[in-house]
Fold:
Amino acid sequence: MSGPPAPVPPGATGPAPVPGRPDQLLPGLVRLTAPNPGMMTGPGTNTYLVGTADLAVVDPGPDDDGHRAAILAAAGSRPVRWVLVTHTHPDHAPGAAPLARACGAEIVGFDARDGFVPDRTAGEGWTLAVPPYRVRAVHTPGHASNHLCWLLEEPRLLLSGDHVMQGSTVVIRPPDGDMSAYLDSLRQLRRLDPPLAAIAPGHGRLIDQPAAVVDAIVTHRLQRQEMVARALAAAGHATVDQLLPVVYVDVDADRYPVARNSLWAHLRKLAADGRAVLADDAGRAALADDAGRAVLADGAGADGTGADGAGADGAGADEIDRTWSATPATAP
Structure:
């Protein structure tokens, strides 16, 4: 394929999200969209109320008094006992603490980060009974290393946070965002048995064709990766910003500040696959070790571990501005 990646199909059903309006998607599952629409959030962050008696609120969104009041109004006389968070980005988690204080609820998430402090941590396989549902944590790193999806086991419905968005793809921002981990986590969803029946995303409408949408996202990402590889192979050496207009020819320039992060993530994945290397400031290409893993000229490996001992979370932010070089394996 030589053109831009195929778009991700909408795969959507049910009402479109409207900030402030509760939408019942299933008995015991209500969606309430926060008033934070934008380029990164679409119509706004979806908050979900799970349960018919005691409630769990998933992704309370930003710390917004009006949205918090709307959550409490939607709950009515039913107590909110748990606040579950998919990840700690600012459009999903900051509302957790003030909502929990207002309700006396327990906060649950993967870890403490970005000002988010859970009362209880949850990892892969952790479960919670919220009648009529049993909710299970599915660890899905990629968009964020601490990302959890929340699976309603009996209807096989996944509250996907930012792991799967309806009608678009999510930004992958290194070093915490990792394209290889993201693709692996998408494939993990396809291995769930029984398979998913629906996905309730953090942004957008209910997805009633989960397998087709997940497969399309994987295909889209891999096609974009090959565009990156072809552009780097043609240039020999290039920066992220030099590659942007070639790789994201189908994207408006006002979205380049977002797209450059995902392009960086693609380059890091190509490096991990032995298909790209970082060059030092003088333009000297890095070498590759016997296993084909990129070894950067300054002593840092393709996993982001540098000579100063910094791991992926401590990778220098200036890496996005450095020059990347093709290898013999770069071209598709």
